[in-house]
Amino acid sequence: MLEMAILGLLNEAPMHGYELRKRVLAVFGGFRALSYGSLYPALKRMREQGWICGQDPDDASRVLPADAPPLTGKRGKVVYALTAEGKERFQELLTEGGPEAWEDERFGVRFAFFAQTDADVRMRILEGRRRRVEERRDGLRSSLARTRQRVDRYTLELQSHGLDSIDREVRWLSELIDHETVDRRQIDGTNSQPPKSTT
Amino acid sequence: MLEMAILGLLNEAPMHGYELRKRVLAVFGGFRALSYGSLYPALKRMREQGWICGQDPDDASRVLPADAPPLTGKRGKVVYALTAEGKERFQELLTEGGPEAWEDERFGVRFAFFAQTDADVRMRILEGRRRRVEERRDGLRSSLARTRQRVDRYTLELQSHGLDSIDREVRWLSELIDHETVDRRQIDGTNSQPPKSTT
DNA sequence: TTCGTCATGTAATGGGTTACATGATTAC
DNA sequence: GTAATCATGTAACCCATTACATGACGAA
User: Fold this and answer.
1) Which residue has the higher pLDDT, A147 or A90?
2) Which of A94, A125, A153 is a domain's end point?
């Protein structure tokens, strides 16, 4: 998840870790800020994998290799950028349309990069997500129906509010799916162009 | 979090681990099922702490002590129940009204046991939660206002939907707070009775 | 010159998951 | 008898967090 978020953000523009953290917060925000303790190790791993490289901003020509100096002591800023392999990796992640793509942990990230995702993959993920959320809704709904009489006001309140939220998410997804369908018809025949922005 | 959930559920009725897991799913459901890999170690820890004890259901008089047999090989069912210390611990947790009580991780559990929580603690937690969620809403709202023009349809869609959900949560909390205030006035003077169920 | 923010990193820790291993009980 | 579900537990792992340590740079 973090991996894809970093690749996607660096795909837009090279930046350094600190900036990346703020962008992650802004784009996937709503939830908590990403900590340095997970960001920097992730960048290190990805550098070792060869997906990103760190450029010394004081000397842009000097690209830091995978076995880069620890930079402890006199530490410089490091601007991270995608390598060719990194771009390839991101494109590969973008085409994945399996079940994990619509689970809670990944759906947000996948959705955030939908503009760069093929229309058919987008559709598969949206429909998978909707099925997933409907499943959860039905489970909660029947559990609520069973326990309605036996539980206290607050438990009921909590579950009802949860159910309402899930219901809203299903409706939201349905609207998105409808919209995708319309876009697809308008383009007619092709299924790989992103729709023109309508907002 | 898990600790309080277990104490609270066992406070209603003794049960064994497997059942506990289903109850956790039902009450705090909506999200994922609790895994055995975290449930059983938690029960073990709590037994060592002296908060719960495991009773052999074949011989109810034989209460398994803290240094209970590993039960490997021929393993029996174990019905867990709160000890006096466990009940005390749960009551203590119920009175905590600090900032952690309204953070994401704990709020759900705290709310689930509101019927057993003092009205003033309830109020403090609800108001704290509302402030917390409003904070997040304002952050997201201004971030959305700043980036509105520069981002693609999907990013916008994701953020707008997030904002709507947070808005709804604020309104929900406000309604609960209003209701609490009314209940408090009706009881007039006292502040420790749970309100009569009105649903 | 000192404070706030930018900036990079490591180490310890925590709280959970998955996968594994085992066995009892019930329904067909 | 055999499959499903009930039932208990451990071990390895994963991914993130907090706390810590360090230092540069700009503004008051």
Assistant:
1) A90
2) A94
Indicate the residue of A147, A153, A162 with minimum beta-carbon distance to B199. Answer: A153
Same domain (yes/no): B14, B57: yes
| Res A56: pLDDT | 62
Q: How far is the CA of B90 from the C1' of D7 (A)?
A: 26
Contacts of A168 in chain B (CB under 8 A): 164-165, 168
Band (pLDDT 50/70/90 cuts) for residue A59 is very low
Tell me how far the alpha carbon of residue B167 is from its chain's centroid: 22
Give which of B40, B54, B55 is closest to B2, Cα–Cα.
B40
**pTM score, whole prediction:** 0.85
- The pLDDT of residue B97: 92
Query: What is the pLDDT averaged over residues B9-23?
Result: 93
Write the DSSP symbol of residue A59. Answer: S
Q: How far apart are CA A139 and CA A131, in angstroms?
A: 12
Q: What pLDDT is attached to residue B8?
A: 96
Residue of B nearest to A165 (CA): B165
- What range does the domain containing A169 cover? 99-188
Whether A199 and A120 have beta carbons less than 8 Å apart is answered as no
Verify whether the Cβ–Cβ distance B136 to A30 is below 8 Å: yes
Distance from residue B35's CA to nucleotide D13's C1', rounded to whole Å:
15
Q: Is A144 on the interface with B (CB under 8 A)?
A: no
